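= Protein in question =
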Amino acid sequence: MKKIIGLTLLSFVLLLCSQCNRTEIYLSPIDNAPDSSIFAMAVYNNELYVGGCFDSVGNVKSKYIAKWDGKKWTSVGKGLNQGYRGVEALVVYKGELYAAGDFNYIDTIPVDHIAKWNGKEWTPVGNGKTDGVFPYVTSLCVYKDELYAASRFDSLGGIRANNIAKWNGERWDSVGNGVNYTVNALAVYKDELYPGGICDKESGNLVKWNGQKWISLGKGITTNWSVQSYAIYQDKLITAGTFDSAGGKPAERIAKWDGNKFEPFEKGVADREASMVAMEIYDNELFVGGKFDFPSGEKANNIIKWNGENWQTVATDTSGYVSCFITYNGDFYAGGSFRRLNGQPIKFLTKLTIPIEK
């Protein structure tokens, strides 16, 4: 017999794919959720902040960013504006919330793709203009008491920076000679910083930063590929992307790194057209989100989890990307560009409830 925690009348029972053990997960809509895609989430001052390309939450105007206290939505100052994709990354650093993405202003104040919120007001992060192929920041990460920002740019905050830069709370600085590829994800693993991104024969292989120098990870993953997300699971750095081999062995879009070498994950997860942009650990299981199906052609519906032995589906009849996950007040949330889950109109944000076995 199962005891269900937090079950609402609008929650939906999900059945597992036929290749996996059967389980039940409940997806609940969030009242008055943002009116368009969510790309990033963070917890700050005991509230859930969501960022994306939306204009409002419920009847509250809140451009690109809003906050949720578990019961109601409120705006975050006057919001951010003048961009296309809006907020793509959120992180807390030295007691303030940093937002980065494709935006240029706080109200009428120029901020140039990155800004910080102290709980009362927005302020710019340093001075200077960001230039490059994609002159905005898509990834943020705190490492060795500094904030790292990355994407595809030539300068950030007025300093020359090759796709990655760091902020110490007062000024921007370059990170060695930077990296030669567009950065999609940042992660800290075994006290080293890993930028994952789009690599080809010209840009070379993945690298890591130990605080003083860049170190190549070798040729563990094929060229002409992309790393889209990282997660640390069972003491390994899980790497997801568009590659098909790792450590010289077939790897269907997911691999693991132990600090010295890449190996394929226990079971491949996605087809050749996959895009896996989010991974997170909840209840000792690995959740993966994006837009993909299983290599066999069986529907994965853009969100799955690994229970230590098998991949399990989490939703049915899903439309749109699952782009981010977070745990807030003990509950697990997923955000993205989806407008339907399990054939029901659950849009852009959902809460996942996992039953507790008696």
Observations:
- The two ends are 7 Å apart (CA to CA).
- Residues 2-357 form a domain with the Methylamine Dehydrogenase; Chain H fold (CATH 2.130.10.10).
